[in-house]
Design a protein that fits this description.
metal-binding, five-stranded mixed sheet, disordered N terminus, membrane
Length: 844
Amino acid sequence: MMDSCAAASATVMEEKDWKRAITNACELIAPIWPLDQWIAVNPFWGLRDRPAKSAERLLQQRAGFSFLMPAAFYREAWEGGRISDADLKLSLEESGMPPALQPLYDALKKSGQPGESLPYSILDVLPENSEGVKAADAVCAEIGRLCGAYFDGRQARWSGTGGSGDHSGFFRFWLEAARQDLSLDYRTGIAGARKRLKALPEDRREAVEKAVESIDLSTEELEVLGHKLLMRILGWASWASGLDWRAGLAGEASEARESLLSVLLVWESVALACASPEQIAARAKAWAQIRQGMQGHGPGCGNGPDAANDAGEKLLWIWHRAYEIGYQRKLRQILLEEPEATAESCSAGSDSDTGCNAQYNIQAVFCIDVRSELMRRHLENHNSRLNTLGFAGFFGLPVSHQSHGPFSEVQRLPGLLAPGYRLVDTKGSTEADNTLNRALDQREIARESVRKAKYSGLSTFTLVETTGLAWAWKLVKDSLHRKKARQPDEGSPVEGRLVHQLGGDPLSIPEKVRLVAGFLKGMSLTCDFAPLLVFVGHGTQTDNNPNHAGMACGACGGQSGGVNARLAAALFNDAGVREGLAEEGIHVPDTTFAIAAEHCTVTDEIMIFDRGQVSESHQPLLAELEASCIAAGREARKERATPLKLNGLDDGELLAALKQRTLDWSEVRPEWGLANNAAIVFARRERTRGKNLSGRVFLHDYDPEQDAEGQVLEVLMCAPMMVANWINLQYFASVTAPEVYGAGNKLLHSVVGGNLGVIEGNGTDLRIGLPLQSVHDGTFWRHEPLRLTVLIDAPRERIEAIIERQPDVASLVNNQWLWLHRMLPGGDQERFHKGEWHGCSGYS
C-alpha cells in the first residue's frame, strides 16, 4: 500500500501545493549579509521549530553531515577533565536514559562520522563527465558562476542585473546563459540538457510547474527535495535568503530564493528527462527508502514529539550535553564565589532597593559584547567609584548615518532591525556642507578613475608599467608597517540632523524623550545617576581583511559604536529632553553630564570623544576616567596576551605588538572577536561585579524590581537574547561543521561581487560563517562549541509568560537551541527543562 507521504504523487500537484512546498523549502535556509555589513547568523534559524537533535538528524540525512563534534573531541575533553562522570550522569538523567556510563565510553571508540546521504536527486545517480566531475557538482558550479555574475554589486566590469536591485530575475538570467552555453552538455555530462532547456517556457512559474510535474513527488517530498538542492549550493542560497530578508525589512517584495530554487528544480527535471531507465529506477529505489524515513519525522507526515528522545538517539549527544553541563557547572561556581576584587559595598541605609548607583562618581555603559566583560571587570577592579552597565551597543538608537561625501548611508543598528531614523552630518550651514561635499566628491572621482584604469582591458598593463614604482613604495611601506593606523573620528561633537527615515522630518522633543527614556529603561538606569555618564561603543581595526566587519560587531553589520554613543550622549544632555524625562518620572540631576567613548577591541584602548565639551567642574572626573581606562586597558591586554601568543611582553611591547596587528596586511588573526562566547546574563551588575567570567559572557543590565509588568524583559528576550543566540550558533556551526557553515581558509579567499562574500580557492559557491582562523589558532580550537546559556534574574512566572507569548523565543527554549537558567535570591540557579524548573545543585 502506498504510504500517506507519497499518496499525492499519483496525481498532478495543484499550483498552491507546489508553491507551498517551494516556500517551505526556502524558509529552511538562514540569511547572510554582505561582507561590509556582516552579522553573525544562526545557520539553523530555519530549523528552529524542530528540536536541535531532530534538526541534526535531518541535516545528516539530507546533506550528509553532523553538527556534533567527532568522538575524538569529546574523548579529549573527558580525558582532560573538561567533562566529568558527574556531568555525564546529569546528561543521561536529562535524556531519560539509564545511568550506565560504559556504553558512553564505548561510543568514544567509534569514529561516529556520518555516511553518504541517500540520492535524493537524479543528479546523484548520473555518471561523471569525461573529466571525472560528478553531474551534481558540475551543475552547482555552473549555477554558482552565474550567481556571482548576476548578483555582483560593483566588482565586475560587466554584470547581470542582480546588483542593481532586481533580485528575482535570476531564473531568466540563468536560462538565457544556459541556452547560449555550447559546452553545457560536455561540462555537466548530461547529453541533451541544452536542447531541453531551449524548449522550456520563458516564464519562471510555467517552467517550474512543468518541472514539478515531471519530478512527480508529493508536496512534502518536494519540500524535502527543495531543501536538499538548496543545501548543495548553500552559500548562494543563503545570500538569496538574505536579499529576501532585507527586502522584507524595507517593506519590499523579493523572490531571490524561489528564483534560485526554480533553477535547481528545472535542472532536476531536465536531468530526469535525459536519464536512462536504470538511473530512474535507482532514484525511485532511493525515494522508497526516504519515504520510510519520513514517516513520523518528515514535514507534514505526522511529526510527533521530540523524536530525538528515542532510545536509539546518538550517544554523542549525551557527550555533547555533558560538555555543556561542564561549562554551566563552572559558571555557577564562579557566580557563587566571592568576587576576586570588588568595589566598596553599598553604603548602609541606602534608600534605593534597586541598586547602588548613588555611590558611584562615574557610570560607563558598554555594549553587551563578550569582549567588554574584560574591560568592565578591570575598570571596576581599578576604581571602586566606577560602575559599568551593559546594554546593546547601538544604544537603542535605530539610525542610519549619512556622512559627508558621495557615500551611501550606513545602518548603525542590529541587522535584524530596520532603521527608523537617519542621522545626517552637517557642519552647521548649507554652504559649509556643500563645500565639504564637493571636495569629497572630487577625491572619490579621482579614486574611481584609478579603479577603472586598473580593471580596464586596454590600460591594465600600461597602468602598471607607468606607476609601478609608486605602487612599489606603498607595498614596501605597508610591509614594514609604516603607515598610520586608522583612528575613530575625534572631531567636533555630533552635529547631525536627526530626522525620520521616511519623510525626513526632524524629531520633535517628545520623540527624542521617548528614545532616551527607552534606552535608560532598557538598561535599568532610571535613578541614582552618577555625575559622569559615559556611553562606550566599540570597534576594531584591521587591514586587508575581507572579514573585518565580523571582528567589529557580531550584530550591527560590522559598524563601530562610536557614532551611536556620541548621539546618545548628545540626546541625553539636551535640556529639552531632560525636562521631558522628568515628566516621565526619570529625574536626571543637573550635575550629571554624558560623554561618549569607543573601545578598540584589538588594543583595548578607550578613546574619549568631545573632551572640549566637558565643563571645568567635571574635569577631575574626566581625568579619573582616563586614568582608569589606561590601567584597565593594561590589565585587559595582559589577560588577552596568552591566547594571542604574545605573553612575556611588558605592556609597552604588548601594546606595540597589538597595534602592529591592526596594520599588518598579512595578519590573519588580528583578534579573536567573539570566539568562546558561551552565556548571556540579564541581571543587575552587582550580581556579576568582580567575577572573572573570562570574556565569555554577554552582560546586559536588568533590574527585575523596575519591571513589574515584564515589558523590558520581553524586549530583552526577543532582541538581545536572540542576537546572542545568532552569534553563539554562528560560532558553534563554524567549529562543528566548518566545511558547511565555515568560511574556510582566509589565505585562499577571493572576494566576490565587491562585498557579497568570499569563495575559497577555485570554488564557485560562497563560503558562509567564520573563517577557520577566527576559531582555530593553528593547533587548537579557540571556540568551545556550546549552545548559549541564558541566565535571567526574574520571577518564574514572568519568564514563562514571555515564552508563551513569543513563538520564536519558545522555539529556541523548548527545542534546546539554547539553555534557560534563572537566578535565585541566594545566588544559586535553577534551569528550565521541558516546561519545568529544576534545581542546579547537581552542577556542584
